[in-house]
Amino acid sequence: MTGDSSMGSNERSGARILVDQLRIQKVDSISCVPGESYLAVLDALYDEDINILTCRSEAGAAMMADAYGKLTGRPGICMVSRGPGATNASPAVHIANHDSTPLILFIGQVNSTMREREAFQEIDYKAMFGGIAKWVMEIDRPERVPELVTMAFRIAMQGRPGPVVVSLPEDMLIRTCKSTDGGYVAPSAPTPARDDVLAVLGYLQDAKSPLIVLGGTSWLAQDRHLLGKLAEKYDVPVATSFRGASLLPPIHPANAGDLGLGRDARLRERLATADVVLLIGGRMSEISSHSYTLLEVPAPRQRIIRVHPDSMELSRMHGPTLEIEATPHTFCSVLAECLRGEEGDGFKPRVDEAHKQFVEQSEKSVQLPGEIQFGEMVRWLGGVLPDDGIICIGAGNYTGWLARHFCFGEANIQLASTSSSMGYSVPAAVMAKHIYRHRIIVAFATDDCFMTNGQEFATAVQYKLPIIVIVLDNCQYGTIRLHQERDYPGRVIATRLRNPNFAGFAKAFDGYGEVATDLEEFKTAFSNATASGVPSIIHCKIDPLAVTRRD
Q1: CA–CA separation, 34 vs 13, rounded Å?
Q2: Which domain holds residue 378?
Q3: Which of 115, 391, 412, 484 has its CA 20 to 30 A from that of 402?
Q4: Is the pLDDT of residue 217 over 90?
Protein backbone atom coordinates (compact mmCIF):
# COMPACT_ATOMS: atom_id res chain seq x y z
CA MET A 1 0.00 0.00 0.00
CA THR A 2 1.15 3.51 -0.76
CA GLY A 3 -0.26 6.85 0.27
CA ASP A 4 -1.12 8.22 3.71
CA SER A 5 -4.54 6.70 4.36
CA SER A 6 -5.47 6.36 8.00
CA MET A 7 -6.60 3.04 9.34
CA GLY A 8 -8.09 2.11 12.68
CA SER A 9 -10.57 4.54 14.21
CA ASN A 10 -9.45 7.90 12.75
CA GLU A 11 -11.83 10.23 10.91
CA ARG A 12 -12.31 8.96 7.35
CA SER A 13 -14.79 9.20 4.53
CA GLY A 14 -17.01 6.24 3.72
CA ALA A 15 -15.08 5.72 0.49
CA ARG A 16 -11.75 5.73 2.32
CA ILE A 17 -13.07 3.25 4.88
CA LEU A 18 -14.33 0.99 2.07
CA VAL A 19 -10.98 0.92 0.29
CA ASP A 20 -9.20 0.24 3.60
CA GLN A 21 -11.42 -2.81 4.08
CA LEU A 22 -10.55 -4.05 0.58
CA ARG A 23 -6.88 -3.77 1.45
CA ILE A 24 -7.44 -5.69 4.69
CA GLN A 25 -9.09 -8.46 2.62
CA LYS A 26 -5.95 -8.51 0.41
CA VAL A 27 -7.82 -7.47 -2.70
CA ASP A 28 -5.26 -7.09 -5.46
CA SER A 29 -7.47 -6.55 -8.52
CA ILE A 30 -10.73 -4.75 -9.27
CA SER A 31 -12.58 -4.78 -12.58
CA CYS A 32 -14.82 -1.80 -13.23
CA VAL A 33 -16.55 0.61 -15.50
CA PRO A 34 -16.13 4.04 -13.89
CA GLY A 35 -19.19 6.04 -12.91
CA GLU A 36 -19.99 9.32 -11.24
CA SER A 37 -21.95 7.58 -8.50
CA TYR A 38 -18.79 6.17 -6.92
CA LEU A 39 -16.16 8.75 -7.85
CA ALA A 40 -15.19 9.01 -4.19
CA VAL A 41 -14.18 5.33 -4.19
CA LEU A 42 -12.12 5.76 -7.34
CA ASP A 43 -10.36 8.71 -5.72
CA ALA A 44 -9.66 6.65 -2.60
CA LEU A 45 -8.12 3.96 -4.83
CA TYR A 46 -5.78 6.50 -6.45
CA ASP A 47 -2.97 5.96 -3.96
CA GLU A 48 -3.49 2.22 -3.53
CA ASP A 49 -1.42 -0.63 -4.92
CA ILE A 50 -4.52 -2.38 -6.29
CA ASN A 51 -4.75 -3.26 -9.97
CA ILE A 52 -7.70 -1.61 -11.70
CA LEU A 53 -8.94 -3.17 -14.93
CA THR A 54 -11.07 -0.57 -16.68
CA CYS A 55 -13.47 -2.42 -18.95
CA ARG A 56 -15.66 -1.55 -21.91
CA SER A 57 -18.90 -2.88 -20.47
CA GLU A 58 -20.24 -3.72 -17.05
CA ALA A 59 -21.09 -7.25 -18.22
CA GLY A 60 -17.48 -7.84 -19.17
CA ALA A 61 -16.20 -6.30 -15.95
CA ALA A 62 -18.45 -8.44 -13.77
CA MET A 63 -17.63 -11.61 -15.72
CA MET A 64 -13.95 -10.87 -15.13
CA ALA A 65 -14.71 -10.73 -11.42
CA ASP A 66 -16.48 -14.08 -11.67
CA ALA A 67 -13.41 -15.57 -13.37
CA TYR A 68 -11.23 -14.19 -10.56
CA GLY A 69 -13.44 -15.90 -7.99
CA LYS A 70 -13.27 -19.21 -9.85
CA LEU A 71 -9.48 -19.07 -10.17
CA THR A 72 -8.58 -17.91 -6.66
CA GLY A 73 -11.41 -18.92 -4.33
CA ARG A 74 -11.53 -15.32 -3.05
CA PRO A 75 -14.33 -12.98 -4.13
CA GLY A 76 -13.80 -11.23 -7.43
CA ILE A 77 -14.43 -7.50 -6.97
CA CYS A 78 -16.35 -5.47 -9.53
CA MET A 79 -17.46 -1.85 -9.32
CA VAL A 80 -20.13 -0.30 -11.53
CA SER A 81 -22.34 2.74 -11.51
CA ARG A 82 -26.06 2.89 -10.75
CA GLY A 83 -28.99 2.04 -12.99
CA PRO A 84 -27.81 0.93 -16.44
CA GLY A 85 -24.43 -0.02 -15.00
CA ALA A 86 -26.10 -2.36 -12.54
CA THR A 87 -28.44 -3.91 -15.09
CA ASN A 88 -25.55 -4.49 -17.50
CA ALA A 89 -23.63 -6.33 -14.76
CA SER A 90 -26.53 -8.60 -13.83
CA PRO A 91 -25.65 -11.52 -16.17
CA ALA A 92 -22.46 -12.13 -14.20
CA VAL A 93 -24.39 -12.19 -10.92
CA HIS A 94 -26.62 -14.88 -12.43
CA ILE A 95 -23.52 -16.81 -13.59
CA ALA A 96 -21.90 -16.60 -10.15
CA ASN A 97 -25.12 -17.77 -8.52
CA HIS A 98 -25.40 -20.86 -10.73
CA ASP A 99 -21.67 -21.62 -10.52
CA SER A 100 -21.29 -21.02 -6.76
CA THR A 101 -18.60 -18.41 -7.40
CA PRO A 102 -17.59 -15.86 -4.74
CA LEU A 103 -18.14 -12.39 -6.18
CA ILE A 104 -18.88 -8.96 -4.72
CA LEU A 105 -20.50 -6.37 -6.95
CA PHE A 106 -20.27 -2.83 -5.59
CA ILE A 107 -22.82 -0.50 -7.17
CA GLY A 108 -23.00 3.26 -6.85
CA GLN A 109 -26.43 4.40 -5.68
CA VAL A 110 -28.30 7.68 -5.84
CA ASN A 111 -28.02 10.10 -2.95
CA SER A 112 -29.93 8.62 0.00
CA THR A 113 -31.95 11.84 0.36
CA MET A 114 -33.43 11.17 -3.09
CA ARG A 115 -34.47 7.56 -2.61
CA GLU A 116 -37.97 6.45 -3.65
CA ARG A 117 -38.36 9.41 -6.04
CA GLU A 118 -37.26 7.53 -9.16
CA ALA A 119 -34.20 9.74 -9.18
CA PHE A 120 -31.76 9.70 -12.09
CA GLN A 121 -30.86 6.03 -12.77
CA GLU A 122 -32.37 4.89 -9.46
CA ILE A 123 -33.09 1.16 -9.06
CA ASP A 124 -34.20 -0.89 -6.09
CA TYR A 125 -31.27 -3.30 -5.98
CA LYS A 126 -32.83 -5.63 -3.44
CA ALA A 127 -35.80 -6.16 -5.73
CA MET A 128 -33.60 -6.45 -8.80
CA PHE A 129 -30.95 -8.87 -7.50
CA GLY A 130 -32.87 -10.56 -4.70
CA GLY A 131 -33.56 -13.72 -6.70
CA ILE A 132 -30.06 -14.26 -8.10
CA ALA A 133 -27.65 -12.99 -5.43
CA LYS A 134 -26.75 -14.70 -2.20
CA TRP A 135 -27.12 -11.39 -0.34
CA VAL A 136 -28.11 -7.86 -1.37
CA MET A 137 -27.65 -4.92 0.98
CA GLU A 138 -27.10 -1.18 1.10
CA ILE A 139 -24.63 0.58 3.36
CA ASP A 140 -26.52 3.58 4.65
CA ARG A 141 -23.93 4.96 7.12
CA PRO A 142 -20.13 5.17 6.73
CA GLU A 143 -19.50 3.81 10.24
CA ARG A 144 -21.10 0.51 9.16
CA VAL A 145 -18.77 0.00 6.18
CA PRO A 146 -16.26 -2.24 8.04
CA GLU A 147 -19.01 -4.40 9.51
CA LEU A 148 -20.96 -4.89 6.29
CA VAL A 149 -18.01 -5.27 3.92
CA THR A 150 -16.51 -7.90 6.22
CA MET A 151 -19.87 -9.66 6.25
CA ALA A 152 -20.05 -9.46 2.45
CA PHE A 153 -16.73 -11.30 2.13
CA ARG A 154 -17.81 -13.91 4.64
CA ILE A 155 -21.16 -14.57 2.97
CA ALA A 156 -19.63 -14.68 -0.52
CA MET A 157 -17.22 -17.45 0.53
CA GLN A 158 -18.98 -19.33 3.30
CA GLY A 159 -20.91 -22.56 2.68
CA ARG A 160 -21.97 -22.58 -0.95
CA PRO A 161 -20.07 -19.56 -2.35
CA GLY A 162 -21.99 -17.02 -4.34
CA PRO A 163 -22.46 -13.39 -5.39
CA VAL A 164 -23.09 -10.52 -2.98
CA VAL A 165 -24.38 -7.14 -4.17
CA VAL A 166 -23.48 -4.03 -2.17
CA SER A 167 -25.20 -0.70 -2.83
CA LEU A 168 -23.21 2.47 -2.04
CA PRO A 169 -25.25 5.71 -1.78
CA GLU A 170 -23.25 8.60 -3.17
CA ASP A 171 -23.61 10.79 -0.09
CA MET A 172 -22.58 7.96 2.26
CA LEU A 173 -19.27 7.69 0.45
CA ILE A 174 -18.29 11.31 1.12
CA ARG A 175 -19.52 11.57 4.72
CA THR A 176 -16.83 11.16 7.37
CA CYS A 177 -16.83 9.35 10.67
CA LYS A 178 -14.66 7.41 13.07
CA SER A 179 -14.87 3.66 12.73
CA THR A 180 -12.91 0.54 13.58
CA ASP A 181 -11.71 -1.67 10.74
CA GLY A 182 -12.79 -5.25 10.29
CA GLY A 183 -10.46 -8.24 10.13
CA TYR A 184 -9.32 -10.51 7.33
CA VAL A 185 -11.95 -13.12 6.46
CA ALA A 186 -10.97 -16.74 5.89
CA PRO A 187 -14.06 -18.94 5.48
CA SER A 188 -14.42 -21.87 7.80
CA ALA A 189 -14.54 -25.15 5.92
CA PRO A 190 -16.78 -27.84 7.45
CA THR A 191 -14.90 -31.07 8.06
CA PRO A 192 -16.70 -34.42 7.88
CA ALA A 193 -16.72 -36.93 10.71
CA ARG A 194 -14.39 -39.87 10.17
CA ASP A 195 -17.29 -42.28 10.76
CA ASP A 196 -19.24 -40.70 7.89
CA VAL A 197 -16.32 -41.12 5.51
CA LEU A 198 -15.91 -44.73 6.63
CA ALA A 199 -19.63 -45.20 5.92
CA VAL A 200 -19.02 -43.94 2.37
CA LEU A 201 -16.32 -46.56 1.91
CA GLY A 202 -18.72 -49.20 3.17
CA TYR A 203 -21.37 -48.22 0.62
CA LEU A 204 -18.81 -48.31 -2.20
CA GLN A 205 -17.44 -51.66 -1.11
CA ASP A 206 -20.90 -53.27 -1.11
CA ALA A 207 -22.10 -51.63 -4.34
CA LYS A 208 -22.57 -53.62 -7.52
CA SER A 209 -22.50 -50.66 -9.92
CA PRO A 210 -21.20 -47.51 -8.16
CA LEU A 211 -20.27 -44.19 -9.75
CA ILE A 212 -18.47 -41.12 -8.42
CA VAL A 213 -19.38 -37.70 -9.90
CA LEU A 214 -17.10 -34.70 -9.32
CA GLY A 215 -18.24 -31.08 -9.54
CA GLY A 216 -18.18 -27.71 -7.84
CA THR A 217 -15.19 -25.79 -6.53
CA SER A 218 -12.51 -26.01 -3.80
CA TRP A 219 -10.58 -28.84 -5.46
CA LEU A 220 -6.83 -29.20 -5.07
CA ALA A 221 -4.54 -31.37 -7.20
CA GLN A 222 -3.90 -33.82 -4.37
CA ASP A 223 -7.66 -34.30 -3.94
CA ARG A 224 -8.03 -35.56 -7.49
CA HIS A 225 -5.10 -37.93 -7.05
CA LEU A 226 -6.74 -39.29 -3.93
CA LEU A 227 -10.01 -39.92 -5.79
CA GLY A 228 -7.98 -41.99 -8.24
CA LYS A 229 -6.72 -44.09 -5.36
CA LEU A 230 -10.30 -44.51 -4.10
CA ALA A 231 -11.47 -45.52 -7.58
CA GLU A 232 -8.71 -48.09 -7.84
CA LYS A 233 -9.35 -49.68 -4.45
CA TYR A 234 -13.13 -49.97 -4.79
CA ASP A 235 -13.39 -50.30 -8.59
CA VAL A 236 -15.52 -47.15 -8.99
CA PRO A 237 -15.59 -45.20 -12.29
CA VAL A 238 -15.33 -41.41 -11.89
CA ALA A 239 -17.31 -38.94 -14.03
CA THR A 240 -17.32 -35.15 -14.04
CA SER A 241 -20.42 -32.96 -14.07
CA PHE A 242 -21.31 -30.28 -16.62
CA ARG A 243 -18.44 -27.80 -17.10
CA GLY A 244 -16.24 -29.91 -14.81
CA ALA A 245 -14.21 -31.74 -17.46
CA SER A 246 -10.91 -30.32 -16.17
CA LEU A 247 -11.47 -31.73 -12.66
CA LEU A 248 -10.03 -35.09 -13.73
CA PRO A 249 -7.60 -35.43 -16.67
CA PRO A 250 -9.03 -37.52 -19.52
CA ILE A 251 -5.94 -39.72 -19.45
CA HIS A 252 -6.64 -40.73 -15.84
CA PRO A 253 -7.47 -44.47 -15.93
CA ALA A 254 -10.55 -43.96 -13.71
CA ASN A 255 -12.10 -41.21 -15.86
CA ALA A 256 -15.48 -42.34 -17.19
CA GLY A 257 -16.26 -39.11 -19.02
CA ASP A 258 -18.15 -35.86 -18.76
CA LEU A 259 -21.87 -35.57 -17.98
CA GLY A 260 -22.25 -32.33 -19.88
CA LEU A 261 -23.34 -31.66 -23.45
CA GLY A 262 -22.26 -34.31 -25.92
CA ARG A 263 -22.18 -37.00 -23.25
CA ASP A 264 -21.80 -40.64 -24.21
CA ALA A 265 -25.11 -42.51 -24.03
CA ARG A 266 -23.25 -45.33 -22.26
CA LEU A 267 -22.19 -42.99 -19.46
CA ARG A 268 -25.74 -41.75 -19.16
CA GLU A 269 -26.90 -45.35 -18.81
CA ARG A 270 -24.15 -46.01 -16.26
CA LEU A 271 -25.51 -43.22 -14.06
CA ALA A 272 -29.14 -44.27 -14.56
CA THR A 273 -28.44 -47.88 -13.53
CA ALA A 274 -25.95 -47.21 -10.72
CA ASP A 275 -26.92 -48.50 -7.29
CA VAL A 276 -24.66 -46.05 -5.38
CA VAL A 277 -23.73 -42.56 -6.61
CA LEU A 278 -21.21 -40.47 -4.68
CA LEU A 279 -21.68 -36.78 -5.60
CA ILE A 280 -18.76 -34.63 -4.45
CA GLY A 281 -18.95 -30.86 -4.69
CA GLY A 282 -21.49 -30.39 -7.48
CA ARG A 283 -25.27 -29.90 -7.51
CA MET A 284 -26.20 -32.38 -10.27
CA SER A 285 -28.48 -29.89 -11.98
CA GLU A 286 -30.42 -30.07 -15.25
CA ILE A 287 -27.67 -30.75 -17.79
CA SER A 288 -25.74 -33.34 -15.78
CA SER A 289 -28.91 -35.18 -14.77
CA HIS A 290 -30.32 -35.19 -18.32
CA SER A 291 -33.25 -32.94 -17.40
CA TYR A 292 -33.56 -34.59 -13.98
CA THR A 293 -34.37 -37.98 -15.50
CA LEU A 294 -31.19 -39.87 -14.52
CA LEU A 295 -31.63 -39.05 -10.83
CA GLU A 296 -35.35 -38.90 -10.12
CA VAL A 297 -36.77 -36.12 -7.96
CA PRO A 298 -37.40 -36.33 -5.07
CA ALA A 299 -36.62 -40.03 -4.52
CA PRO A 300 -33.98 -41.39 -6.90
CA ARG A 301 -33.63 -45.07 -7.56
CA GLN A 302 -29.95 -44.91 -6.64
CA ARG A 303 -28.50 -44.56 -3.18
CA ILE A 304 -27.16 -41.01 -3.22
CA ILE A 305 -24.23 -39.89 -1.07
CA ARG A 306 -23.82 -36.13 -1.21
CA VAL A 307 -20.74 -34.19 -0.18
CA HIS A 308 -21.31 -30.43 -0.25
CA PRO A 309 -20.18 -27.50 1.93
CA ASP A 310 -23.68 -26.05 2.33
CA SER A 311 -26.24 -27.88 4.45
CA MET A 312 -29.07 -26.20 2.51
CA GLU A 313 -27.91 -27.93 -0.68
CA LEU A 314 -27.51 -31.44 0.71
CA SER A 315 -31.17 -32.44 0.58
CA ARG A 316 -32.26 -30.27 -2.33
CA MET A 317 -34.04 -32.27 -5.04
CA HIS A 318 -32.38 -35.66 -4.58
CA GLY A 319 -33.02 -37.10 -1.12
CA PRO A 320 -29.62 -38.57 -0.21
CA THR A 321 -28.96 -41.76 1.69
CA LEU A 322 -26.03 -40.03 3.38
CA GLU A 323 -25.40 -36.29 3.73
CA ILE A 324 -21.88 -35.01 4.42
CA GLU A 325 -21.35 -31.30 4.95
CA ALA A 326 -17.83 -30.72 3.68
CA THR A 327 -15.85 -29.12 0.89
CA PRO A 328 -14.23 -31.46 -1.61
CA HIS A 329 -10.87 -30.72 0.01
CA THR A 330 -11.91 -31.34 3.62
CA PHE A 331 -13.71 -34.53 2.56
CA CYS A 332 -10.60 -35.73 0.74
CA SER A 333 -8.40 -34.82 3.70
CA VAL A 334 -10.37 -37.17 5.97
CA LEU A 335 -10.58 -39.72 3.17
CA ALA A 336 -6.78 -39.70 2.96
CA GLU A 337 -6.59 -40.66 6.64
CA CYS A 338 -9.09 -43.48 6.13
CA LEU A 339 -7.16 -44.84 3.14
CA ARG A 340 -3.70 -44.44 4.67
CA GLY A 341 -1.68 -47.60 4.31
CA GLU A 342 -4.18 -49.23 1.98
CA GLU A 343 -2.99 -49.85 -1.55
CA GLY A 344 -5.00 -50.91 -4.57
CA ASP A 345 -3.94 -53.78 -6.79
CA GLY A 346 -4.59 -52.16 -10.14
CA PHE A 347 -7.74 -50.95 -11.85
CA LYS A 348 -10.50 -53.52 -12.11
CA PRO A 349 -13.18 -54.36 -14.71
CA ARG A 350 -15.77 -51.66 -13.93
CA VAL A 351 -13.25 -48.82 -14.10
CA ASP A 352 -11.44 -50.29 -17.11
CA GLU A 353 -14.66 -50.69 -19.08
CA ALA A 354 -15.91 -47.17 -18.25
CA HIS A 355 -12.59 -45.57 -19.20
CA LYS A 356 -12.39 -47.59 -22.41
CA GLN A 357 -15.83 -46.36 -23.42
CA PHE A 358 -14.82 -42.76 -22.61
CA VAL A 359 -11.67 -43.05 -24.75
CA GLU A 360 -13.70 -44.52 -27.62
CA GLN A 361 -16.13 -41.59 -27.42
CA SER A 362 -13.28 -39.07 -27.28
CA GLU A 363 -11.55 -40.52 -30.32
CA LYS A 364 -14.69 -41.01 -32.38
CA SER A 365 -14.79 -38.57 -35.27
CA VAL A 366 -17.92 -37.30 -36.97
CA GLN A 367 -17.43 -35.84 -40.43
CA LEU A 368 -18.91 -32.37 -40.59
CA PRO A 369 -19.72 -30.28 -43.66
CA GLY A 370 -16.91 -27.89 -44.57
CA GLU A 371 -13.14 -27.92 -44.36
CA ILE A 372 -12.72 -27.33 -40.64
CA GLN A 373 -13.37 -30.45 -38.59
CA PHE A 374 -13.77 -29.11 -35.07
CA GLY A 375 -13.08 -32.41 -33.34
CA GLU A 376 -9.70 -32.69 -35.09
CA MET A 377 -8.92 -29.06 -34.22
CA VAL A 378 -9.68 -29.60 -30.55
CA ARG A 379 -7.64 -32.82 -30.36
CA TRP A 380 -4.68 -31.06 -31.99
CA LEU A 381 -4.94 -28.11 -29.64
CA GLY A 382 -5.05 -30.42 -26.62
CA GLY A 383 -1.80 -31.95 -27.80
CA VAL A 384 0.11 -28.67 -28.16
CA LEU A 385 -1.31 -26.57 -25.32
CA PRO A 386 0.92 -26.70 -22.22
CA ASP A 387 -0.42 -28.60 -19.22
CA ASP A 388 -0.97 -25.32 -17.38
CA GLY A 389 -2.88 -23.66 -20.22
CA ILE A 390 -6.34 -22.31 -19.45
CA ILE A 391 -9.36 -22.78 -21.71
CA CYS A 392 -12.21 -20.24 -21.48
CA ILE A 393 -15.52 -21.04 -23.11
CA GLY A 394 -18.84 -19.30 -23.56
CA ALA A 395 -21.99 -20.70 -25.12
CA GLY A 396 -22.55 -22.80 -28.22
CA ASN A 397 -22.66 -26.30 -29.65
CA TYR A 398 -18.86 -26.40 -29.80
CA THR A 399 -18.65 -26.73 -26.01
CA GLY A 400 -19.82 -30.34 -26.26
CA TRP A 401 -16.97 -31.08 -28.65
CA LEU A 402 -14.47 -29.52 -26.27
CA ALA A 403 -15.73 -31.68 -23.41
CA ARG A 404 -15.52 -34.75 -25.62
CA HIS A 405 -12.25 -34.23 -27.47
CA PHE A 406 -9.99 -31.83 -25.56
CA CYS A 407 -7.41 -33.64 -23.48
CA PHE A 408 -7.01 -31.62 -20.29
CA GLY A 409 -3.64 -31.99 -18.57
CA GLU A 410 -2.99 -32.19 -14.84
CA ALA A 411 -2.89 -28.42 -14.40
CA ASN A 412 -5.26 -27.31 -17.16
CA ILE A 413 -8.23 -25.22 -16.05
CA GLN A 414 -11.54 -24.75 -17.81
CA LEU A 415 -13.31 -21.44 -17.15
CA ALA A 416 -16.96 -21.59 -18.14
CA SER A 417 -20.43 -20.80 -16.91
CA THR A 418 -22.89 -23.60 -16.21
CA SER A 419 -25.66 -21.22 -17.27
CA SER A 420 -24.01 -21.09 -20.73
CA SER A 421 -24.10 -17.32 -20.77
CA MET A 422 -23.00 -15.85 -24.07
CA GLY A 423 -20.07 -13.48 -23.92
CA TYR A 424 -18.27 -15.15 -21.01
CA SER A 425 -15.09 -16.46 -22.60
CA VAL A 426 -13.32 -13.24 -23.63
CA PRO A 427 -13.70 -11.41 -20.26
CA ALA A 428 -12.75 -14.61 -18.43
CA ALA A 429 -9.63 -14.93 -20.57
CA VAL A 430 -8.64 -11.33 -19.84
CA MET A 431 -8.81 -11.93 -16.10
CA ALA A 432 -7.06 -15.30 -16.35
CA LYS A 433 -4.15 -13.71 -18.23
CA HIS A 434 -4.06 -10.86 -15.72
CA ILE A 435 -3.62 -13.40 -12.90
CA TYR A 436 -1.40 -15.90 -14.73
CA ARG A 437 0.87 -13.88 -17.00
CA HIS A 438 3.07 -16.88 -17.85
CA ARG A 439 0.26 -19.21 -18.95
CA ILE A 440 -1.27 -19.53 -22.41
CA ILE A 441 -4.91 -18.47 -22.21
CA VAL A 442 -7.27 -19.52 -25.00
CA ALA A 443 -10.84 -18.24 -25.33
CA PHE A 444 -13.31 -20.07 -27.54
CA ALA A 445 -16.30 -18.11 -28.79
CA THR A 446 -18.85 -18.51 -31.51
CA ASP A 447 -19.54 -15.51 -33.71
CA ASP A 448 -22.64 -14.56 -31.71
CA CYS A 449 -20.94 -15.24 -28.38
CA PHE A 450 -17.94 -13.08 -29.30
CA MET A 451 -20.12 -10.18 -30.37
CA THR A 452 -21.74 -10.15 -26.92
CA ASN A 453 -18.61 -9.09 -25.04
CA GLY A 454 -15.90 -9.01 -27.69
CA GLN A 455 -15.27 -5.37 -26.87
CA GLU A 456 -13.19 -6.60 -23.93
CA PHE A 457 -10.55 -7.54 -26.49
CA ALA A 458 -9.71 -3.82 -26.25
CA THR A 459 -9.15 -4.29 -22.50
CA ALA A 460 -6.69 -7.10 -23.25
CA VAL A 461 -4.81 -4.81 -25.63
CA GLN A 462 -4.82 -1.90 -23.18
CA TYR A 463 -3.29 -3.96 -20.38
CA LYS A 464 -0.97 -5.97 -22.65
CA LEU A 465 -2.62 -9.31 -21.92
CA PRO A 466 -1.89 -11.55 -24.94
CA ILE A 467 -4.88 -13.86 -24.92
CA ILE A 468 -5.73 -16.01 -27.96
CA VAL A 469 -9.38 -15.86 -29.02
CA ILE A 470 -10.67 -18.53 -31.40
CA VAL A 471 -13.85 -17.28 -33.07
CA LEU A 472 -15.92 -20.07 -34.62
CA ASP A 473 -17.95 -18.27 -37.26
CA ASN A 474 -20.88 -20.11 -38.84
CA CYS A 475 -22.96 -16.97 -39.44
CA GLN A 476 -25.83 -18.00 -37.20
CA TYR A 477 -27.09 -18.61 -33.71
CA GLY A 478 -26.04 -22.24 -34.03
CA THR A 479 -27.60 -23.75 -30.93
CA ILE A 480 -30.97 -22.16 -31.67
CA ARG A 481 -30.69 -23.27 -35.30
CA LEU A 482 -30.04 -26.82 -34.03
CA HIS A 483 -33.22 -26.70 -31.97
CA GLN A 484 -35.18 -25.20 -34.86
CA GLU A 485 -34.10 -28.02 -37.15
CA ARG A 486 -35.10 -30.53 -34.49
CA ASP A 487 -38.48 -29.08 -33.50
CA TYR A 488 -39.56 -27.13 -36.60
CA PRO A 489 -37.79 -28.72 -39.61
CA GLY A 490 -37.31 -26.48 -42.62
CA ARG A 491 -38.65 -23.38 -40.88
CA VAL A 492 -35.46 -21.49 -40.05
CA ILE A 493 -36.10 -17.94 -38.86
CA ALA A 494 -34.25 -15.24 -36.87
CA THR A 495 -31.02 -17.23 -36.51
CA ARG A 496 -28.94 -16.12 -39.50
CA LEU A 497 -26.18 -13.54 -38.99
CA ARG A 498 -23.95 -11.41 -41.20
CA ASN A 499 -20.58 -11.04 -39.49
CA PRO A 500 -17.55 -8.78 -39.74
CA ASN A 501 -13.98 -9.83 -40.43
CA PHE A 502 -12.96 -10.84 -36.91
CA ALA A 503 -9.27 -10.96 -37.81
CA GLY A 504 -9.63 -7.37 -39.01
CA PHE A 505 -11.35 -6.54 -35.72
CA ALA A 506 -8.24 -7.69 -33.87
CA LYS A 507 -5.96 -5.61 -36.09
CA ALA A 508 -8.14 -2.54 -35.59
CA PHE A 509 -7.29 -2.72 -31.87
CA ASP A 510 -3.54 -3.26 -32.58
CA GLY A 511 -3.83 -6.97 -31.89
CA TYR A 512 -3.00 -9.88 -34.16
CA GLY A 513 -5.59 -11.44 -36.45
CA GLU A 514 -5.62 -14.30 -38.92
CA VAL A 515 -8.27 -16.26 -40.82
CA ALA A 516 -8.33 -20.06 -40.90
CA THR A 517 -10.46 -22.12 -43.27
CA ASP A 518 -8.98 -25.59 -42.60
CA LEU A 519 -6.96 -27.41 -39.95
CA GLU A 520 -3.55 -26.64 -41.45
CA GLU A 521 -4.33 -22.94 -41.64
CA PHE A 522 -5.53 -23.08 -38.03
CA LYS A 523 -2.27 -24.69 -36.89
CA THR A 524 -0.26 -21.98 -38.61
CA ALA A 525 -2.50 -19.24 -37.23
CA PHE A 526 -2.25 -20.56 -33.68
CA SER A 527 1.54 -20.68 -33.91
CA ASN A 528 1.62 -17.13 -35.26
CA ALA A 529 -0.78 -15.89 -32.59
CA THR A 530 1.31 -17.46 -29.83
CA ALA A 531 4.48 -15.88 -31.21
CA SER A 532 2.91 -12.45 -31.74
CA GLY A 533 3.04 -11.46 -28.07
CA VAL A 534 -0.17 -9.44 -28.41
CA PRO A 535 -3.87 -10.28 -27.98
CA SER A 536 -4.93 -12.31 -30.99
CA ILE A 537 -8.05 -13.49 -32.81
CA ILE A 538 -8.12 -16.53 -35.06
CA HIS A 539 -11.20 -16.26 -37.27
CA CYS A 540 -12.28 -19.83 -38.11
CA LYS A 541 -14.88 -20.01 -40.85
CA ILE A 542 -17.25 -22.90 -40.14
CA ASP A 543 -19.75 -24.27 -42.62
CA PRO A 544 -23.27 -23.14 -41.53
CA LEU A 545 -24.50 -26.70 -42.07
CA ALA A 546 -22.08 -28.06 -39.49
CA VAL A 547 -24.76 -28.02 -36.81
CA THR A 548 -23.41 -30.58 -34.37
CA ARG A 549 -25.29 -33.14 -32.35
CA ARG A 550 -25.24 -32.89 -28.59
CA ASP A 551 -25.72 -36.54 -27.73
Answers
A1: 19
A2: 365-541
A3: 484
A4: no
